[in-house]
């Protein structure tokens, strides 16, 4: 997939990603994708590339907040529904909750417990960045508890040195860019 003439989508992602040292905690290098999402050509290229990966999904699930942003655009492109996997405390009860560890502390995520039928639906999970894999692994477990069939994971940027892919194995992982 190319954009802006002949530049591969991975190069465009890298050129529009800002590294922020020591955010949200010391020692973490945050990948700020704001400029990427605000650039209509770049965002369209990201969604086009992800559409190839997610074709055949019944539902696109995005991890709050940046993953949900990408997932919503992808679901609109594919003509599917979208599910936002939310941070704890953002949804009214009843909810299903999954706790997990990430590279800078413990967290939990939630989905509605009784307003969706997810059993046997083919779901692809979308997130902005794959780091240690804790968040995506927890999302996979959470959706698995509903009976959903998670068919794969797709991310905009994968931080390969952190080995997050192993935490999600054997689930297929597709990354548009690696850093």
TrEMBL record:
One Pfam family per UniProt: Pribosyltran
GO biological process, one term: AMP salvage
Regions annotated as coiled coil: none
Molecular-function annotations in GO: adenine binding; adenine phosphoribosyltransferase activity; AMP binding
Gene3D superfamilies (alphabetical): 3.40.50.2020
Family the entry assigns: Belongs to the purine/pyrimidine phosphoribosyltransferase family.
Function of the protein: Catalyzes a salvage reaction resulting in the formation of AMP, that is energically less costly than de novo synthesis.
Protein name: Adenine phosphoribosyltransferase
Source organism of this protein record: Mycobacterium pseudokansasii
Gene symbol of the encoding locus: apt
